[in-house]
Amino acid sequence: MTFIKDFQHVLKQNIREYGMFIALFVIWAVFAVLTEGIFISSRNISNLLNQAGYIAVLGVGMTLIIVIRHIDLSVGFMAGFLGAVAAIAMSFWNWPVYIVIPAILLLGLLLGFIPGFLVAQMKIPAFVATLAAFLIYRGAILVVTEGTGTIIISNDFFNAIGNGFIPDIPIGILPEMHVLTLILGIIAIAFYIWGELKARKTKRAYNFEVLSRSIFGLKLAFVAALIGGMTWVLAGYNGLSWTVVIVLIVVGIYSFVSTRTVIGRHIYAVGGNPEAAELSGINVKKITYAVFGQMGMLAALSGILFASRLQSATTTAGTLFELDAIAAAFVGGVSAAGGVGKVTGAVIGALVMASLTSGMNLMGIGISYQYMVRGGVLAAAVIFDVATRNR
Amino acid sequence: MTVPLLEMRNITKEFPGVKALDDVSFQVAKGDIHCLVGENGAGKSTLMKILSGVYPHGKYSGDILFEGNVQKFKTISESEAVGISIIYQELALVPEMTVYENIFVGNEISNGFSIDWNETIKRATEMLANVQLDVNPAVQVKDLGVGKQQLVEIAKALSKDVKLLILDEPTSALNEHDVANLLGLLRGLKEQGVTCIMITHKLQEVMEIADKVTVLRDGKTICTLDAHAGEVSEQALIKHMVGREINNIYPKREHIRSDEVVLEVKNWTAYDSTVGRDILSDVDFNVKRGEIIGFAGLMGSGRTELALSLFGNPEGYKIKGEMFVNGRLTHFPHPQDAISAGLAYVSEDRKQNGLILIQDVMQNITLANLHAIAKRSVIDENAEIAIANKYRESLNIKTPSIEQTVSNLSGGNQQKVSLAKWLFSNPDILILDEPTRGIDVGAKLEIYTIMNQLVENGMSIIMISSELPEILGMSDRIYVVSSGEITGELPIEDATQESIMHLATRN
ipTM score here? Predict the structure, then answer.
């Protein structure tokens, strides 16, 4: 009986953290039933992850924006615009791809400093500053695609970012499976378990509260099964896609920076109490610049992923990305009051939003109802945030 | 004997852990100007909030009688309905609205379905004439000075047929001319039969205008003095205001006489553009190594503003003057620079701008000096835990774990976390702003003991405090601040509660 009590206690204490996993699990289970299993087929899951990728990177950046109590509405069309610039650079100016990608990321970073300047220096509400940028980028996309309409991208390397998969190593066993993906999955599980055990040991050494042995075991088994299951499903199709690899790298870096470094701690301190942070010697303006700057860079990455996936730059690229990113951040547990929210949560949030789209598409639900459902989920996520904030 | 206009009987009001008012009784006769005086925290504002219905009937014990009838105000509008109007220190006008809109806001004159603006403007003009304010009623309130805004507030109160006007420190933000004007107006209103209760810290004004004075101290009525019977004098008022024994909770320390000046400030003037006046003028002081310097004064006298203006000026005041740290002329564009130069500021309001309440004890302690426990900007978690545990032990912070969220700690322990944060930044000069506000006696004693240890090890402390016993018990030297100026410097040997009060109420 203590196990069940422990379980309930842990669930209650960490409902904010686990809520999104529960939401994702429920959504997948419902769609799996409603689509008679098509939803959880290897092919669909693989597609779904690639679709979630360009929202996930935006959601990661948006999490930090919301953590410091701001918002960025411009990221969608900024991503679309930068995707178009990338396409033009490759197709019309014949720039090599290995120049185009870093150049676009740098351009995104610089463009991100503009709302950073307006918010930090001019004290303009982020909502207004980025709404203006939203309109400007929308116009900018139309300007750069005016003569040509959709710009086709024919660079194979670039297109592989959104459509390609990591190569396999031919060793002869499990011929239908993608073996490298499986090996990476096993390594990931091993790393996860090793990391958790180490953290638990450290915590115990300092007499901190740790999960009871049985709950800890359950958590390890659950996450290991999750990673294992996902890799198994992906290995059954084409294996890990480059998009997923990129998202994992971005999340890895962001997770490390936000939890383990000085600047990460400063960002969360500014979000938690800007006055106290300023008096503690943290330069709130600099942090604001940095956070908007990284958002611009991730918008550029998102634009690259999306253009690559479509193998073209379109006149409507980026439409509603910002709202999906904001929804992803909120579903992922970021708090509108600031100072709380993990970047890893935004990835789960992006998966939730992409799953809704994918599942409803499979069921043949019209786009009109899809918008309503996505809106409802966003509202539910924020209501959940407010309802669980003071626990 | 005539029935007093107002009688408050045996009022007792408790907040969690504190008795703000303890069996307070007082009477106000019709047509009097009745002043209410007392130190910060004596209970004056609480008493007026009960009278005006901010703290509703049932949340306190005791009776309010107005014109002989028992009143049970549940809201402010109920007290306004019988003719009681209160004007707070922070004015309650809408800056973007015009004068006439403000006078009748919440009390609009309508003709059927819509507001009758012509009648509103006509009546507003009458009200303005009544308070002798010569402005166009169509100007926006934000374009008026503080003194004129105050008169608009009074006009607003008069438009509601006020019988008892309560003014909470009406002159604290006014210049001399406006003060004289206001006092003249109050005399005029008195002739029209309006009774007035005025809370003030400025004893000169009390002497000038009061018919009667009631002194509150520590939530109790001490006495009511009648000016017409010659009972009111500055000496008498100060004696009644401070007349408590200094209880001996201040740990002994050798007073250090060092000549090494670590901080010197000269001709320091700060202009705050949000209020449109100098909040500090020509401040001069110095701090020597190993000293505790007490900054005494009343709330709002400019002590916190002084500390902030020295500590990297986060409020963006326009500053003139010079600051020398260890003999070198310095200038701090940001708190960061002040911290690097060896200053630390433990803020007055730990919840508002001291701590990150949603973060844990450990994260709060290390926040101001993260680079000390980071290698190439990556935080060493073991070092962080060690630091947090070190301060938890040395300052005796009572928390189940250093991973506990700070908002769950008691006030005293939060204050220790705040202190730990700044001790970890390893300062030479520690500024403590109201270091023991809102914490219990045991925790106070612990903080005092820590302060003594720190100065013994060569640190210098600037302690801003509104509690006179604390100032007298802990300081080596005392500066008294009043209305943004230093009105006196007292060596500890010459300082008494009375002498400090004199200087603090001088401007």
Answer: 0.87
